[in-house]
Amino acid sequence: MYSYIKGIVEEIHLDSIVIENNSIGYKINVSSNTIKNVELGKEAKIYTKMIVREDDISLCGFATREEQNMFNLLTSVSKIGPKVGLSILSFASPGQLGAFILSEDTAKLSKAPGVGKKTAERIILELKDKIDKNSVEFEPTLLSKTPIGISQDEAVDALVALGYSQQESKEAVEKCKKAGMNTEDIIKKSLTYIMSKSLR
Q1: Residues 6+ apart with CB under 8 A from 2
Q2: Does position 83 have pLDDT exceeding 80, yes or no?
Q3: Does the domain spanning 148-198 belong to CATH 1.10.8.10?
Q4: Residue 95's pLDDT band (boundaries 50, 70, 90)?
Q5: CATH of domain 4-62
Q6: Prediction pTM value
Q7: Which residue from 30, 98, 185, 186 has the least number of CB within 10 angstroms?
Q8: What is the arithmetic mean of pLDDT over 75-96?
């Protein structure tokens, strides 16, 4: 119903703000990141999403489209409602969350209020393929990288379990591994390498 509301910030609370527009005060639930971007008595433009429930109608607001997009992604995950979505956005910026999800960093995600290990795993599972690196300013420096030696050993073991010799498995992994790659990526690249080699 509302794409955004632009007006004077009349009140700032712990998890909400009130913006006056045309003599109407709109109470908007927001994250702490959005609160940092507004000033009492100053004009602000807040992107909004209306939440309609049987017993309540409320507005959630965001200082940027990136934050709004991340909120929409988070609340698309089962068992994550608007309140938890905003608390997650208070814990980290959209860029940081994108990095945690893409790097499958359950340890960092599970530290967000209302998010345990199982919920963090569900967020990663459901959103990893939906994170748009072009629209979310995801921060590569925040990616948690598994030490390449561990990923390499696991990949070799997996290839051996698939029936390839220790020598050809090790050779393929050595040729295909790159910094930042996880075990699954190394295995996929190595299988492609072995298959292409056998066709020569």
Answers
A1: 48, 50, 59
A2: yes
A3: yes
A4: confident
A5: 2.40.50.140
A6: 0.67
A7: 185
A8: 91
